[in-house]
Amino acid sequence: MNTLILSNLIVSGLGTGAIYAIVALGIVFIFRTMEAVNFAEGDMGMFMTFVAFSLICLKIPYPLVFIIVVALSFLFGVLVEKGILQFIKGMSPMAITIVTLGFVMVFQGLAGFIWGTDTKPFPPLWKGPPIKAHGIILGRQDVVTLITAFVIFIIFVLLLKKTKIGIAVRAVSEDRYAALLMGVRVSTIFAFVWGFSGLLAGLGGMLAAPRFSLDVNMMTTIQLEAFTAAVLGGFSSIPGAIFGGLTLGVLENLISFYVSSSLKEPISLIIIVVVLLVSPNGLFGKKMNKKV
Amino acid sequence: MKNKTNLTILLIALALPLVLYSKPAFVGYLTLAGIMAISALGLNIILGYSGQISLGHAAFMAIGAYSSAILTMQFHIPFILALIVSVLIAAFVGILVGFPSLRLSGFYLAIVTMALGEAVVSIFKNWKLAGGNFGIRNIPPPSILGFVFSGEISKYYLVLFFLLLSVYISNNLVRSNTGRAMRALRDSEIAAQSVGVNVAKYKIIAFSLGSALGGLSGVLYAHTVTYIHPTAFGIGLSIEILAIVMVGGIGTIAGQIIGSLFWVILPLFIGNVETLSSVIFGAALIIVVLLYPRGLVGILNAGALRKFSKRRR
Questions:
Q1: 20 to 30 A from B267, CA-CA: which of A125, A140, A232, B68?
Q2: What ipTM does the predicted assembly reach?
């Protein structure tokens, strides 16, 4: 076994894994606060990536577009919560989950209706030949992805631990009603959570689009990988989602190189089923008790 | 009163092709609606009666469609025998999928069934005998004892027969002990367990029956559309079947038929733009969950009730 090949595989696996981790983080963030699974997380990102595509077509420089769309993604998430989800606060998490399945149909249909169902080119944030260092070859887009992921994770953790709104978010995810009684504006927190989740989705979409191609179904596979990452990390744990995403990216690369490349797709499915059946709380998750 | 309505609907369904004789394409749409209704009735047993979410229901349609196509084309087995074997295969896979539901519930089950559904699609994608990415073309039309169901109208009656069979099965199930046990476990699993309902048994029964109907629908789909390919049975179709169940009216039999008709006819009204109908159907799903949890059936029933109460005054 060649260590150079191995380290190359690990590094490029981390690049893909970072995308999974970003999307997984968005799913887990919503799950922690609302106990609902957002099946439309990937498609929110897909939709915003198409918005970015339109802005690029208007000859706006891409770095500027990137920042604009990240901001728009936040607003998009807030809009989804304030426009629709806030009307179902009293409903079961399962009802919210089914509503997100409706979002999947709406977002995919809208994107297909506006931009067409064919594949579009999408530029990388940092063009140019791959970077070589000590025999390790790394695509520039991977570098961007890893740096962005690192920065967003730091921001995310600082936000949750240090800021007032972060503490409020944690309070709401601990006990919604107790938080309400303590004077936390729960509806604002929900909007914030969906906004931040939308931001992560948009970020994930724009980072993924140059690597996979931009089309309506672009995020379907990535979202499944993100679910795997979240399941691996325990679904309610934020470090778990990050760790799960990065691990999955590396694992996929290693298995498709050393075992068989046709295993790349099924591997995440196998992980989901095995982890959920053997230990549903994953590596970092808390055990949840059923209530009557 | 209720029987009268049902009889009228049945008579209309039987007579419809005679009226639409000059429009075989429209009869074809109705056939497709019937096929989707069978599949939706299957998911309704799992989701509507037993309360177990499944996001991989299209995979059972794929299993039915592929096994029947392979059996009739590669092994030259008569259609009716292939149909029975394929339905049994789907039911068996349904039992296997039911096992995770014994340990998992809610969104975890949704994720597992979604993963299993995608796994089935990926198996058919990579399987040479199933035609890989290209799928299977030129599947022969159904034939029973020498009679070939090649025309649109004969296919319609064949599907109608199996739809009535599925309705009969669902209807009997609801009224039986099994159906009552299923609804008990839907309303509260722990409560059902505490009054002595064997939760594991009924979950498995629900999954096997529901999957069998999904498989049946797949068989009919393969032999009436005559072309199948793996990506058609992905998560997208599973979500659409779930939307049919919810929009039509979860836990009702009529709802599945109304939902399927809505699903098939909606695109015709907006000029066959698939993307736009997906938007409208998704929006319908959201609106139903938000405002009308009993779906189109609930809306229609409420309308009928209002009408009758007015008349009484």
A1: B68
A2: 0.88
